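Figure 3 (text version): structure tokens given as input.
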């Protein structure tokens, strides 16, 4: 299933397109589910079933994924996924910063962590995956004893 040998990567392939899902990056925005609920169904295993969805429809919905957890590779001659230019950063109310564009994200020492077209960055400072959002701010708090 994972032709790239990238740890944690799940791939779903049909003739025209391969969907790549990186669960460690997923912040469960559900934009994929809202866009193509017949393909992306978190109550089903596997949760991605391409079925008869067109490669164009899949690419359009995947491009809405704010974290970059979903990506695609086209096999039908259509353009590959491209990074937005210029890059943008969009804050969300009570949640992450959505980054879109050709960006390199560095650690606090300036070392590159990820070069990507989309990412969700922590805005609350509680993430265990900093600088990336892991929705720690949405986790129920445990009362102190």
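Below: residues designed for each position.
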């Amino acid at each position: 299933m994972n032709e790239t040998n990238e740890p944690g990567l799940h791939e779903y392939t049909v003739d025209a397109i391969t969907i790549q899902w990186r669960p460690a990056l997923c912040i469960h925005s559900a934009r994929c589910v809202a866009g193509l609920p017949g393909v992306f169904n978190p109550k089903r295993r596997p949760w991605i079933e391409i079925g008869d969805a067109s490669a164009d429809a899949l690419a359009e919905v995947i491009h809405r994924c704010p974290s970059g957890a979903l990506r695609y590779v086209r096999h039908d001659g259509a353009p590959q996924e491209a990074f937005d230019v210029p890059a943008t950063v969009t804050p969300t109310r009570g949640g992450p910063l959505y980054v879109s564009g050709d960006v390199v994200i560095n650690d606090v020492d300036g070392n590159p962590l990820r070069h990507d077209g989309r990412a969700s960055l922590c805005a609350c400072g509680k993430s265990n995956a900093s600088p990336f959002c892991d929705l720690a701010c949405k986790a129920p708090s445990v009362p102190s004893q």
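The chain has two helices and six strands.
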